[in-house]
Sequence to fold (225 residues):
Amino acid sequence: MSTTKLRTISVVDAVAEQLSEAIFDGTFQPGEVLVESQLATLYQVPRQTIRSAIVVLIHDGILCRVPNKSVYVPEFSEADLHDLFAVRRLVEMEAIRILANRKIVPKEAENAMRFMEVLHDENDWNEILKLDFKFHQAIIDATGSPRLQRFYRSISAEKRLALSYYRTADTSPRIIVQEHKELLDALRTGDPDATAEAASRHIQESEALISSTIKAQKDQHKMEW
Fold:
């Protein structure tokens, strides 16, 4: 019988993971200042552990620090979002071209899509984003480039954070599943150009979702005033 090696995780990594999930699910809001002593009490760990976990999340773009001052949850301007998606487009389209040329369809990406398929409209938006994160990370991992993997992970963390801010009830999991399915179908053709075009279209739709949600929020804010 084959054996499975379990991934070991440090206390710092565990706290960083829990804290990032709390940020993604809205427990901590954009612009909110995080206090080390309060987090140490919340997670029942020493402040040094919290401090180390914060460094990890700052590196991933999930937290920001003002020099000699507070740590806070970042806010994204529209310019930030467009820059983030421009970089994402460059990286993901090149990665998927590599896979198409090599005739590789990552199993982990297929598995993530299958989990998406069983989601229903009432499922938590954050669960969908977790699967989206796994799907796209699997695409990058399949290139076999450690540097690309490290670089993309920080971008994808920011992407997930941005999408968690601008979640919308109007987007059905079925639509998201279809977008990812089309991307995998294009990858199976082994045509680099068609696959890159599908990736570009998918990223464009994701960016358009955020843009439309930002506009709706701005319009709502004007009405409240």
User: Anything to note?
Assistant: The first helix runs from residue 11 to 24. The CA atoms of residues 66 and 72 lie 8 Å apart. The chain has nine helices and three strands. The first strand starts at residue 33 and ends at 34.
